[in-house]
C-alpha cells in the first residue's frame, strides 16, 4: 500500500531583543555560564516578571508577516511542570488566546507554489540549559537562557513530504531574517523544532495517530527525522502493527527517533492565567503601524525577481531569502534596472566568492552599487573583457576607486580596433604553424587555443570576439 | 510612661523636638522586646544591632540638620514572607530554613529609604496559610492579651509585636484576611490595601491575584503614615496601580456627616458570635450618632465567597510554591533515588501539612477534567462578586462588617479541624477577591478580649477608610491599650 505523510511543525524561534522577556538581563549568546541572570529570571521567591514590550512588537511583526489575525486583547498563562532547567517550575507562555492566529504562508517547492496554514504564534520564555559534565558527578544548570524570549510558530498539518517541510522551514527562516527579529543561528539554538508526523493510506481523509518528535535542532535533521519516521511508521503498519500516539526524541547522531513518553504519560500542564502580569491590550493603531512598517517579504521578492526581472527560480531564491544579498541587489537594480541578470551573476559569483574568503556580509565590503553597475556596463559594452572586469572589481573593492578610473590608470580598456588586433593575429599565426596545420586537418577547436594566444599577446585587452572573427577569416582564406 | 507606649507620631514629634533620639526610641522597643518575647514568640529573627545602626544613622542625619522622613528612626518588624536582603526569609517553613534573599522587597526598600530601624522578622503561618500562626514550622505566637490564645494569622507575629509594643509598626501580608483578622484579635489597626496599591515585589507569593502587603500600627494615624510610605506605583510589579497619591496621614479629618455606611446583612448572620455582632452594631450606631446614614445592603452570592476563595488561592499557591523543589535553594532531602524522588521527598519533608493540603487542592482544581468545574467557575464567581460589591459601593461610601466571627480562640482549639479554621476567614476572604481596600480598627472588647470592625471601601479609596476610622477612634476614644505582660 502507498502511504502519504501528514506533517505539522512547531518552531521555537528566539527573538533577538537586547534583554530578556521578563527582566533586564542581556540575551547575548556564549556568555560565561550564569552571568546573565538575576533573581527574576532564576525565579527566586518574591520576584515578579514585567513584560518587555519589544517581544510583543516582534511577535506581532511575525504574525502580520504570516497573515495572522492579531488578538489585540490577550494574556499570559502559566504552563506548570517540574524540570531542573525551569526554576519557577512553570513557564510563562500563552494558552487559549495566542497573540497571533489563523495565518498562512506560501513558498515554492521546486516549481510548485505551496501554502501552509499557521495555527498560532505565541510568546513565551525559554528555559535554562542542563550541562552534563563527566568531571562532575551530577548535572549542572546554566540559567543564562532562562527568560530569553521565544515565539512558537505552530503550523496546521498541511505538509506532505520531507521536501515540503524543508521548504516551509526555509520560508519561515527567511521571514524571520527579513524582519530582523531572530538571529537564525542554528548552531546557537536560535531555532528549534518539534515535528509531528503521521501517515495514512494515500487517498484517505482521516489522519493516522501522530508522533511528536522533539529535539529537532537543524533543518537537515528535520528532513532526516521525518524520513526516518515515515519509514518507521510504514514498516510498523506493513507488519500489521498500529501506530500509537506518542512523543519521541530525535537523536541526530544516531539518525533515529527514540521513544520518550506515551499518550498515557502525557503531562497535564495545568495552564491558568498568569496573575503576576496584566493582560496585553494593543490598540488598532499600534498593529496598523507595525503592518505598514513591514518590509517586503521574501516570497513577494522572490516572485518579483523571478517573474518580473527574469532571474531563474534558483537565482531568485538565493537573493530573496538572504537579507544582505537582497538588499545589495535592490540597490544595484535601483541604479540600472536593465542589468538585473548581470548584477545577480556578480552577487552569486565573484561577490559571493569574496564573501566566502572574508567570511563577511556584502554590506561589510562597502561596494558602491553604482560602481558595480558601471563595471558591468563597461563589460557589456565591450570596453572591458570579462577577465579584465574581474581585475577591475578586485581593485575596486581594495581601493574604492571608480571602475572608469581603474581602467584608465591600468590601461585595461578593451581594444576593439581591428587594425591593431590584426597585427597581433598575424604575429600569433606566424608563431603557431603546428596548430594551423591541425586546423586545416579538421581540428577546428584549435581556434580557441589561438584566441587564447591572441589574448595573451594583448595582455587581456583585445576583444576576444574580434580575435575570433579575424583568426577565422585568416584561416579560411 | 515608657517610650514604647507612645504612638509613632508622638515619638516623631519628640524626635523632631530633639527630646529623644532615634537610638533611645529603638532601645526602648528592643528592651520591651527582650522582656516580653519569651512569652509571645512574635519574632523568628531579631536584628538588634542592625536596628541600632540604622537609628544611629538617623541621629547623625538629625544632628547634621538634615530633614528627616516622617518615619525616620521609628522601628518596624517585617513578616517573614517578605524578602530582606542578606537577612534570612523563611516563610515559617522548613523548606526555606536557610534562604537568604539577595534583594529587598520594594516595601522593605521604602522602609529603608525612610530610615526605619528593622527590629526583626516576624512569625506567621507557613507560607501565610492559616489563621492562627500555629502552622509555623518554628514556633507558636501567643496573643498578648491572653497568652493561652492565638494572635490570629497568618500575620500573627507582626500583629502581636505591635499589640505588645515590641515595635510601633509592622507589615504583614493579606491574601484572605491575614492582616485584618490578627489586627482584629489583637486590638490594633490593620489595612489590607486595594489590590495594586502596594507593590508585591519581594513578597513571597501565595495567591498572586489576592496578595497585598499592608501596615499594622496601634492607631489610625500611625497606620496611615506607614501606608503613605509603602504605597505607590512600582515598576517591578506589573500589577501595581499607576496612581500617585497625596499623603493621607497629615490630612486626616474627623467627620462622617452625610456619609453612607452600608451594613451587608450577609455579614451579620449565622456563625457570627452574638456578642461580636452586638459590638459591631454598636459601632454602627456610634457612626449614626455622628451624622452618618446607615443602610442595610444586600451582597448576593456572598455565601460562595469562601469556597471560591479556597479554589483560587489554592490554585495559585500550587503553582507559586512549585519552585520550592530542592534543586536550587532551600531544603533538599538528603536521601533520593532520582530526580522525581528528589522532588517528591524534598517537598514532602520540607512543607508542613496545611501547605501540602493546599498544594494538593490547588493542583486538583487546575487539573485537566476538573479545571472547568472548579477553577473556571471560581473565576466566574469572582467576577460576579466584584459586580455585587461594586453595586453595593455605588450606594454606599463604605461597608461596615465584623472582621472575625469570634474573639481570639484558644491555641490548639481549631488546629485539627481545618474547615473550622477556614471559617474564621469568612468575613475577610471576599474582599481580596474583589480587590477592594479594607481597614480594621479596634471597636471595643468582648469578654476582655479585643475586637475590631472592618471598613470596606471603593477601590483605591484608602483615604476614605482612614478618615472614617479616624473619626471613630477620635470620637469614641476606643483603641489600643498596652497589654500587661
Give a nutshell description of this structure.
The complex is a heterodimer of chains A (about 475) and B (about 475). With about 475 residues, chain A is an alpha+beta fold.
Description:
The complex is a heterodimer of chains A (477) and B (485). Chain A has 477 residues and is of the alpha+beta class. Chain A folds into 3 domains: 3-286, no CATH class; 294-410, no CATH class; 418-475, Orthogonal Bundle (Arc Repressor Mutant, subunit A). Chain A is 41% helix and 20% strand. In chain A, the strands form 4 sheets. A 9-stranded mixed beta sheet of chain A has the order 2-6-7-10-1-11-12-13-14. Chain A has a 3-stranded antiparallel beta sheet with strand order 5-4-15, with no helix packed on it. A two-stranded antiparallel sheet of chain A has the order 3-16. In chain A, a hairpin with a 2-residue loop joins strand 6 (100-109) and strand 7. Chain A is elongated, with a radius of gyration of 30 Å. Chain A starts with a strand and ends with a helix. Chain B is of the alpha/beta class and 485 residues long. Chain B has a domain at 3-258 and 466-476: Alpha-Beta Complex (Amidase signature (AS) enzymes), CATH 3.90.1300.10. In chain B, 39% of the residues lie in helices and 13% in strands. Chain B is built from 15 helices and 11 strands. An 11-stranded mixed beta sheet of chain B has the order 1-3-2-4-6-5-10-11-9-7-8, sandwiched between helices. In chain B, helix 9 crosses helix 12 (372-395). Chain B is globular, with a radius of gyration of 21 Å. The interface between A and B is large, with 28 and 43 residues.
